[in-house]
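Supplementary Methods S3. Complex input for the 2-acetamido-2-deoxy-beta-D-glucopyranose-bound model.
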Amino acid sequence: MKNIYQELLLSLSISLIILAILQPCVSAAVSDTRTRVKGSYIRRRQLLQDHDNHVDPTFLFPNLQLKNAYVALQAWKHVILYDPYNFTSNWIGPNVCNYTRVFCAVAPYNSNLTVVAGIDINHGGIVGYLPEELGLLADLTLLHVNSNRFWGTVPLTFDQLKLLHELDLSNNILSGKFPNVILRLASLKYLDIRYNEFEGPVPKELFDLPLDALFINNNRFQHDIPDNIGNSPVSVMVLANNHFHGCLPTGISNMSSTLNELILMNNNLSSCIPMEMGHLNNLTVFDISYNKLKGHIPEFFGQLKHLQQLNLAHNMLVGSIPESICHLQHLKNFTFAYNYFIEESPICLDLKAFDDSKNCIPEVYTSITISLPSNIIATNSSISRSYIFTTTTTPSTTFIKSLFTTTLFITTTMSSVFTSTAHPITTIAAFQFFTSTTFKFSTSTDS
Ligand SMILES: *[C@@H]1O[C@H](CO)[C@@H](O)[C@H](O)[C@H]1NC(C)=O
Ligand SMILES: *[C@@H]1O[C@H](CO)[C@@H](O)[C@H](O)[C@H]1NC(C)=O
Ligand SMILES: *[C@@H]1O[C@H](CO)[C@@H](O)[C@H](O)[C@H]1NC(C)=O
Ligand SMILES: *[C@@H]1O[C@H](CO)[C@@H](O)[C@H](O)[C@H]1NC(C)=O
Ligand SMILES: *[C@@H]1O[C@H](CO)[C@@H](O)[C@H](O)[C@H]1NC(C)=O
Ligand SMILES: *[C@@H]1O[C@H](CO)[C@@H](O)[C@H](O)[C@H]1NC(C)=O
Ligand SMILES: *[C@@H]1O[C@H](CO)[C@@H](O)[C@H](O)[C@H]1NC(C)=O
Ligand SMILES: *[C@@H]1O[C@H](CO)[C@@H](O)[C@H](O)[C@H]1NC(C)=O
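Predicted complex, serialized as C-alpha cells:
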C-alpha cells in the first residue's frame, strides 16, 4: 500500500513550491497551508482511489460511498494483528454491507444511496490501531469499538465523520492527549472514551458540545475541571478515576435542567462542595467519594428532590449531616463513611442503604431499658398519643433502628411519623443530639 504520509508530504511540498513562487513571505503562510493541505487530503485521496491499484478493477460498487468504505475497512483489516473471534475474517470483497458487524442503511441525504452507517465490533478482543482511512467512512453514525486492544491515537481524519452520533472507544489502550478531533464531530451525542490511557488536561470545548452523555472515566486526565463544565447539556457525566484536582466548579449549577448523574469519585478535588449544587433539581445520582473535599455539606442538598444515591465517602468533610437530606423521598443509598462528621440525625438510619462508619460521631450505647406502655399494640383509634419511655442510658442508633424494624406495629407507625412533617419528629431527632436519658415519641395511627 502506498504510504499515506508520503502522499501528504508530496502534496505539501508541491503547495510550498507554488507558494514560494507566488509569495515572498512563505514562512508565515506555511502552517495555514498545512491545515488546508490536511483538509483537502481526504478529498484528494478519494479522487486518487479511482486509480488505486488496491481496489480490484473487477469489483463493482453501487456508489462511491461504498467503494470508500471498502478502502477504509480493508485498510483497517490490514492493521489488525489479532482478531480472536474472527470478526473481520469475512471482510473480503466488494459487498461491505455483508461484512460481519458492519451495518448499511439508506443515506440520510439521498434515499437512493446505501451507505455504511454503523460498525459495532464491541468485545472483539482485537489488537490493532485505528488507521487514517477510517475518515473515509463519512456516513458513519455509530462507531462502537469497546473492549478491544486498539492502541495509538484517534486519527485526525475522524473530523470527516460529520454524521457520527455515537462514538464508543472505551476499554482499549488508546493514549496521548485528549483527542481534540472529537471536538469537531458536529453530530456527536454520545461520547465514551473511558478505560483508556488518555492523559493531560481536558479541553474546555468538550463541555460546549451538545452531548447527551459523556464518559471519560478511568483515564489519566489531570489539571482542573474546566470552569465551563456547566455549559454541558448531558444527562450523565462520569469523570471518575482520573487525576483531576482543584475545585468543583460552581458553574455546575448551570446544568440544573438536564443533569441526572454526576460521578466524580476518586480524583483529587479539594474544594468545598459548592452551594450552587442545590440547584441541580434533577440530580438522581451524585458520587464524589474518594476526593479531598473540605467543609460542610450544604443544607441545600435537602432540595435535591430526585436524589436516589449520594456518596460522599472518603473525603475530609466536617460538621453534621443536614437532616433535610435524610428526608428526601427517593433517597435510597447514602454513604458518608470516612469523613469527620460529628453528628447525624437518627432519621437517616431509616434509609435502606446507609453507611456512616469511620466518622467522629460519638460511639453510642448498647443497652437500654424501656418500659413500654401496656396498651401500645391496642390502639388504632386515637388521633395522637404520646408515650414517654424512660431509659437508664441513651439508646444506641443500632438499637433504635432495630426497635423501628423488628416490631411490625412500630415500624408502620414510625414510618408514618417520620414522613409526616406535622408531627413532633424533632423530638426523636433531638434525643441523640442532647444525650438525654428520656425520649418521647407520638403515634398517629389514623390514616
Ligand atoms: C477463527 O478462525 C480460525 C481459522 O479459520 C479458527 O481456527 C478459529 O477457531 C476461529 N475462531 C473462532 C472464535 O471462531
Ligand atoms: C450477502 O450474503 C447473503 C448470504 O449470506 C447472500 O445471499 C447475499 O447475496 C449477499 N449479498 C451480497 C450483496 O453479496
Ligand atoms: C433517486 O432516483 C430516482 C430515479 O432514478 C430519481 O428520480 C430521484 O431524483 C433520485 N433521488 C435523489 C434524492 O437523488
Ligand atoms: C492525589 O494527589 C496525591 C498527591 O499529589 C497523589 O499521590 C495521588 O496519586 C493523587 N490521586 C489521584 C487519584 O489523582
Ligand atoms: C451559566 O450560564 C449563564 C447563561 O448562559 C452564563 O451567563 C453564566 O456565566 C454561567 N455561569 C457559570 C458559572 O458558568
Ligand atoms: C427535569 O427533567 C424533566 C424531564 O425529565 C424536565 O421536564 C424538567 O424541566 C427538568 N428540570 C427540573 C428542574 O425538574
Ligand atoms: C450504596 O452505595 C455504596 C457506594 O456507592 C455501594 O458500595 C453500596 O453497595 C450501595 N448499597 C446498596 C444497597 O445499593
Ligand atoms: C386502623 O385504621 C385504619 C383507618 O382508620 C383502618 O383502615 C385499619 O384497618 C385499622 N387497622 C386495624 C388493625 O384495626
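Residues 363-447 form one domain. Confidence is low (pLDDT under 50) at residues 1-37, 364-395, 402-447.
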